[in-house]
Amino acid sequence: MNREETQKKETNREHIFIVRCGEVALKGMNKPYFERMLVERIKKLLKKFDGVSVKRHEGLIFVRADGVLDKQQIIKEISKVFGVASISPAVECESTMESIGEAAVEYMLEAIEERNIKTFKVEAKRADKNFPVKSPDIGRQIGAAVLKGCKVLKVDVHHPDCLLFVDVRHDTSYIFQDKIAGFGGLPLGTNGKGLSLLSGGIDSPVATWMMAKRGMMIEAVHFHSYPYTSQRAQEKVEDLAKLVATYCGRFKLHIINLLPIQEQIVEHCPEEETTILVRRFMMRIAEKIARDTGCNMLITGENLGQVASQTAEALVVTDASVSMPVMRPLIAMDKVDIMDKAQEIGTYETSIQPYEDCCTVFLPKHPATKPKLERILASESKLDCEELIKAAVTSEEVIDIYPE
Ligand code: ATP
Ligand code: MG
């Protein structure tokens, strides 16, 4: 078969993907619930394609897609679903040794066309224990059939170019070679809802993604200091939010103008306390929005020691401003690892665009790195905090964020 014929055949044939659940499979009595949620998420992400079905069967999830659809695109979408451990594009055949042998030969002939494969090894598994041939014998016999049908191939049990998996199940068997890794985690919607404080930086999109990966639904808040911060800076945050939404689905982004509060702080409080005071206001406003929108916790991209406002002492003072739990998934990570993660999930390039953040407006020359809570509380007593927070929340703008 030449390349053109192979491609033609490929477009006519339905694509089949085996999707494996990771941790979801360990959830005991809750397993069906987690699997159902996972199937729902995959269905939701693939809804934009016509001719796709998603079904649970014998502990696996099977995605079937019309042959005209782009296989790589579908793999990309499925791999974004939290809870997916791996994906294998597969072919299926009847569960008889003859059919499996024929399908394996055909599969390998196509694989040879696509890439330079010289050696292979069959890895056979008999999920159906009533199947009359045992796994090692399936491996040997299918290996022999492939050798006979694909003359260019040799067996290499130690370092094969291609591991040919044969999964024999009741009625139907599956043949595949790749196990494309997903992100793992838990399906969205299985672990409450968090309000993420989303800046335009590198850290907070990663922090949001990490919590969503544990099954948490997301709502977000962004603070700006317009006109000190530009409209373009806000658009950058919306762009970042859209990228995050490709993983965690559509969500609401609350936009708050912090400038009136910052002006009050600058006018009435010591300069070196500005940053920590602003951060405490951010947290309290976020907490109020979180309570109003049914969130269980706050999420920030804070990281121990990264900047003056993230020393141990500063974090204690920040934390004391709210009673809701604050999740800081990046707290102990190194910056390079956070940057790598941002690259991996696709937010890095947008995050490094050079736009100003409200935190950099009115930045003190020497921020207090070891703030004392009593002194901060004394400074705040000069402000009508409750009224300022209420006014900020009342004038919020809410934007619906859809996946990019
Ligand atoms: P990032 O890279 O996420 O901007 P950062 O290292 O710049 O983080 P800070 O500016 O001190 O750190 O902010 C710490 C955390 O506070 C951020 O990760 C984010 O969760 C929140 N935050 C900071 N600025 C804003 C903002 N303008 N709007 C919403 N949240 C913010
Ligand atoms: Mg920042």
Describe this structure in words.
With 404 residues, the chain is α/β, with parallel strands linked by helices. It contains 14 helices and 15 strands. The chain has helices at 3-12, 31-46, 71-79, 97-114, 135-149, 203-213, 231-248, 259-268, 274-292, 312-319, 335-345, 348-351, 373-380, 385-394, and strands spanning 15-21, 52-57, 60-65, 84-94, 119-126, 154-155, 162-168, 172-176, 180-181, 193-197, 217-224, 251-257, 297-299, 326-327, 397-401. The strands form two sheets. Strands 1, 2, 3, 4, 5, 6, 7, 8 and 9 form a nine-stranded mixed sheet that branches. Helix 10 (312-319) links the parallel strand 13 and strand 14. It binds adenosine-5'-triphosphate and magnesium ion.
Number of helices: 14
Mean of residue pLDDT?
A: 93
**Relative helix content:** 40-55%
Strand and helix order? HEHEEHEHEHEEEEEHEHEHHEHEHHHHE
Give the N-terminus to C-terminus distance in angstroms: 39 Å
Structural class: alpha/beta
Taking all Cα atoms into account, the compactness measure Rg is 27 Å
List ligands, each type once: adenosine-5'-triphosphate, magnesium ion
Count of DSSP E strands? 15
Detail the poorly predicted runs. Answer: none
Note the topology:
Layout: H1 3-12, E1 15-21, H2 31-46, E2 52-57, E3 60-65, H3 71-79, E4 84-94, H4 97-114, E5 119-126, H5 135-149, E6 154-155, E7 162-168, E8 172-176, E9 180-181, E10 193-197, H6 203-213, E11 217-224, H7 231-248, E12 251-257, H8 259-268, H9 274-292, E13 297-299, H10 312-319, E14 326-327, H11 335-345, H12 348-351, H13 373-380, H14 385-394, E15 397-401
Parallel strand pairs: 5-6, 5-7, 10-11, 10-13, 11-12, 13-14
Antiparallel strand pairs: 1-3, 1-4, 2-3, 4-8, 4-9, 7-8, 12-15
Helix pairs in contact: 4-5, 6-7, 6-11, 8-9, 9-10, 9-14
